[in-house]
Amino acid sequence: MDDVLLEAHGYHRALQDTVSFIATSLGYENVYLTPDDIATFEAAGVTSEWDSSAICACLLLKEAWSIDPGRELPTLIPQAPVALLDIEAPNFNSFADSMDDARMKSLRPRERAERLILSNAIHLSSLHKSIIRSILSHARQIHSSLTHRVFQELILGSSEFIQIYNLEPFFDSESYLGMYDSPTLSRVHLDLLIDWLQSPGHSGVILTNRPSYAPQGYFCTPEAEIGARLVGLENLPIAGFGGLSWLSHSHGQGQEAYIKPSPVHALTALRLALGDDQEEALRNAASLAIDNNLDPSWQQLQDAQVSVFEDTTGGLESLIAAKYCLRATNIHLDTHLFGISTNHQKRRPLASIGAQIFPTLSSALKSASIMP
Q1: Is the residue at 362 inside a domain?
Q2: CB-facing half-sphere around the CA of 271: CA atoms within 13 A
Q3: What is the reported pLDDT for 103?
Q4: Which one of 65, 81, 286, 325 is separated from 117 by 20 to 30 angstroms, measured CA to CA?
Q5: Are residues 196 and 160 in the same domain?
Q6: Burial 48-62 (b: 16+ CB within 10 A, else e)
Q7: What is the pLDDT of residue 78?
């Protein structure tokens, strides 16, 4: 969705303002996370702003502690004024680049960040290290993460934030998703895509790590649905974070266990394309990927042409892994990988796993013969 179907300025702007807020709260002046910094994080696989904002908070704290070991994140808003730090902000870009290390590819982004932050931390006390670990481990928990709470209020808007979380707002803000996001497809191109999707034998699914509605009342915010409405594809099924998080919870796993690059994410999208409802799709995907149980209806995908359009490698790797799961049961997919980006730092890893690279979604759809 983000940076493919949508120019995701809302998430990026909220990330930038969250990091700037944390920096100001610690006593830094004029700290700004640049678009290039964000692209470098994403190229290294840190595609969730919940994670990148927490990582940046840890870097800011670590640097601040080098001259003032007593600095801490605020617990009250507004907070009492803090003394300014006579220190340069950490180099976010350099740190993000160091996370793109093949030796740590098996680790989740926050695990990689923790290892890197604490590997060169001579001046940090055991309490400091414990704080770093806590910030990273709670990065996705609204009640115990300052960065998560600030970011969620900015992207949802203060009034929606109150209704969803029943928490007092820190700000008085409109939704950044509504203010700053914009579709990448023109109305003409969108109509052509919808015509293709409605033709016999064609299906489409939105594959995203955005929070989304989940089965059985499992709590998750409808950010993917907001994006789908903005794009004009609200009728497409969504394989989003909410459903995958519900599935991992039901299996006793961490929230991120089955999101891309896990094969479960792409397999869920394929089941949605076959017409499963959300819960059916999730259960059938997990049954194949985890338990190696083959539902007979998977046979409908024999020799299917499947394309994925992504700005980072996660969705592409998920489809590749899903293809191998199906191949083990003698079902063949003809897969096509499309990378969408103009940023050289994001294009490099996309190309490294065999994706064709295009500057826009419309140009990739034309290459895929989805659009004339």
Answers
A1: yes
A2: 27
A3: 86
A4: 81
A5: no
A6: bbbbbbbbbbbbbbb
A7: 60
With residue 308 as reference, give the H or E element that holds it. Answer: strand 304-310
Amino acid at the residue 321: A
The bridge status of strand 356-358 relative to strand 333-340 is parallel
Tell whether 190 and 149 lie within a shared domain. Answer: no
Instruction: Provide the phi-psi class of 200: left if phi over 0, else alpha when psi is between -120 and 50, else beta.
Output: beta
Domain interval for residue 22:
6-165
Residue type, 21: F
Pull the structure tokens for residue 12: 């990026």
The secondary structure of residue 2, as a DSSP letter, is: B
C-alpha distances (whole Å) from 311 to each of 110, 112, 127, 360 are 20, 21, 38, 10
Q: Per the structure block, which two tokens stand in for 91?
A: 């180099």
**Domain match, 269 and 146 both:** no
Domain count, the chain: 2
Count Cβ atoms within 10 A of the Cβ of residue 102 and give its class: 0-12 exposed, 13-18 middle, 19 or more buried: exposed
- Residues 225, 352: one domain? yes
- Angular region, 102: left φ>0, alpha ψ -120 to 50, beta rest: alpha
**Are 202 and 349 in a shared domain?**
yes
Shared-domain flag, residues 136 and 198: no
Q: What is the DSSP letter of 75?
A: S
Query: For the segment 127-146, what is each residue's pLDDT rounded down to a tens digit?
Result: 999 999 999 999 999 999 99
Counting Cα atoms < 13 Å in the Cβ hemisphere of 178 gives 9
In a shared domain, residues 224 and 360: yes
pLDDT digits (tens, 9 = 90+) for 58-73: 999 999 999 999 999 9
Give me the percent of the chain exceeding a pLDDT of 90: 87
Q: Which CATH number goes with the domain that contains 287? A: 3.40.50
Question: Is 172 a domain residue?
Answer: no
Q: Is residue 303 part of a domain?
A: yes
